[in-house]
Design a protein that fits this description.
The protein is 29% helix and 22% strand. It has 19 helices and 23 strands. Helix 6 packs parallel to helix 11 and helix 6 crosses helix 12. It comes from Williamsia serinedens. It holds the Pfam family DUF3471.
Length: 546
């Protein structure tokens, strides 16, 4: 799952420490807003924007920063990152900082693969997870610059087969709506279909079967909603999404190790392997994430050297090497608030906001930032933050299941830039925010089995093919005297069933969408079967026997 932490982090911070992702979900969304006390920066160089100097009182920036504010913060990074890796034991990481149009810091730490001991450097390629969304927004910006589409282009204008359950929403939902997660689709709708092996076209077709929350007033982080918008832009361009990303962003910016194709990532000699924690130790993941179906939302891979080129272009309003890759007007709407992601905990706190593929925030020092985090439970934790008024950006990529390290390092760095000191316990705050991502799911977790369960019916009572219009077939078969459930287009996702009580069985899902220890009930009731794990996406998880 490509996670969204924005609302979880906001609630956590608003209560002074309590994020599907973020995406988490996410730095600078709400956590930084609610926790930090309002303080002014140090006097120094002006941070005033061109809009402010033109008379726009809303554009007035915070006090200027000392000329050496960024360089001093950069000087602390080696120690800070080494401390984080030592504290958490995560195998490897890479960090880059961009300032003044150049990469002023780019280093690797630890190992790319615990099995081989291969070292991480600034060219090691990592999976970006949901940081992909921000790159995808810049791909769309290139097409806006070329007058091919706009953020307000209806998705059906270029992908006429796309539909949602409400005809009005189908006709009016725009590229921007889906990049802002405000279509009304349920949180993470479609992710489990991907888990079972369905391809992108099938998943996008089935979104029309889901109920919708109120259009444009509800924020629910949805990877396949954003993917649908990106696909419509690629369709307009007459190519596939990965090729469009190559020719519009990666190639013009010289990002030679970056791609939206998993096969490119898997073929890199210098790539970071995902790691997960088992029995208190980090180990190579048993399930490397293959996210091609939702590539615009989570399928990018890159190095920090490459990502520094992208961040430099972002800070330069789309200009790189004398070429305007995307216009300032095309990218600005993506990096400013388009929908509220979370209510503040009190009148003294700040709300969380999302743009088009970016978190959009204001720090306690009155400085706007835009950012995103990425999280694969199978072994990726990523984050970047851009602070335009300080002309600085930082990115950290890690090859471990997300525990908040990338977010914490980047916020510690931004504290140093703004204040010359660390103002908040970011390790603790992000550690708490991410802790929920590793919790098992299911109503039976932690509950003992019945002491005297009712007996099950003979296996033949349950064996057969069941069907859901949304989830597809579920086949119950007998194997070695027990029952097995098979899900997906060819039944490749299989789980043995354990009898619990009467007509209730269980299985233990383990995937990008289910942490170890998760339990799903499977309840048979005549011709119907309800799978608890699939009571999601706005669906009731009910299958009917054929």
């Amino acid at each position: 799952m490509i996670r969204d932490l924005s609302r979880t982090a906001s609630r956590t911070a608003s209560r002074s420490a309590r994020t599907h992702v973020l995406s988490a979900t996410v730095v600078a969304t709400c956590l930084v807003l609610a926790v930090s006390s309002c303080s002014s920066g140090s006097p120094g160089s002006s941070g005033e924007s061109s809009s402010a100097s033109a008379g726009d009182v809303n554009a007035a920036a915070a006090e200027g920063l000392p000329a050496d504010a960024v360089s001093k913060a950069v000087g602390r990074l080696d120690t800070m990152i080494s401390e984080e890796l030592s504290r958490t034991g995560i195998p490897g990481a890479a960090v880059a900082v961009v300032h003044g149009g150049t990469t002023v810091y780019a280093k690797g730490f630890g190992v790319a693969d615990l099995a081989t001991g291969r070292k991480v450097d600034a060219d090691t390629v990592f999976q970006l997870a949901s940081v992909s969304k921000s790159i995808s927004a810049s791909v769309v910006a290139t097409q806006i610059t070329q007058n091919e589409v706009s953020w307000d282009t209806p998705v059906v204008a270029n992908m006429p087969g796309f539909a949602l359950s409400d005809p009005y929403v189908t006709a009016n939902v725009t590229v921007g709506d889906l990049f802002a997660h405000r279509s009304g689709l349920a949180e993470h709708a479609g992710d489990k279909l991907e888990e079972f092996g369905y391809d992108r076209d099938t998943i996008l077709q089935r979104l029309r079967l889901l109920p919708l929350q109120p259009f444009r007033t509800t924020y629910d982080y949805t990877n396949f909603g954003l993917t649908a918008a990106a696909q419509s832009v690629a369709d307009k361009a007459g190519t596939d999404w990965a090729t469009l990303a190559d020719r519009s962003i990666f190639s013009p910016l010289g990002m030679r190790s970056s791609s939206m194709r998993y096969s490119d990532f898997a073929g890199r000699a210098d790539r970071a392997v995902g790691h997960v924690k088992q029995n208190g130790k980090w180990v190579v993941t048993p399930m490397q994430r293959e996210p091609d179906a939702q590539a615009p939302a989570g399928g990018a891979s890159s190095s920090v050297n490459d990502m520094a080129r992208w961040l430099a272009a972002m800070l330069a309003d789309g200009e790189a090497g004398g070429t305007q890759v995307f216009s300032p007007d095309s990218i600005l709407p993506a990096t400013i608030p388009e929908i509220r992601t979370a209510m503040p905990g009190s009148a003294a706190d700040r709300a969380g906001f999302y743009g088009y593929g970016f978190n959009a925030s204001t720090t306690s020092d009155g400085r706007t930032t835009y950012s995103h985090s990425g999280a694969f439970a199978s072994g990726a934790g990523t984050n970047f933050v851009v602070m335009p008024s300080a002309d600085v950006a930082i990115i950290m990529l890690t090859n471990a299941a997300p525990i908040g390290v990338a977010d914490a390092v980047n916020m510690r760095f931004m504290d140093l830039v703004q204040f010359g000191e660390e103002r908040q316990p970011w390790d603790e705050l992000y550690g708490n925010a991410y802790a929920g991502l590793s919790e098992p799911s299911g109503s039976l977790v932690g509950k003992p089995a019945p002491a005297n369960p009712a007996p099950a019916q003979p296996n033949s009572t349950y064996v057969g093919t069941y069907h859901s219009a949304y989830w597809g077939p579920a086949v119950i078969s007998e194997q070695n005297g027990g029952l097995v459930i098979a899900l997906g287009p060819s039944g490749q996702t299989r789980y043995p069933l354990t009898h619990r009580d009467g007509n209730v069985f269980t299985f233990a899902p383990y995937s990008e969408n289910a942490e170890p220890g998760s339990i799903s009930a499977v309840t048979f009731d005549g011709p119907k079967m309800t799978v608890e794990y699939l009571t999601s996406d706005g669906n009731d998880g009910v299958f009917t026997r054929q």
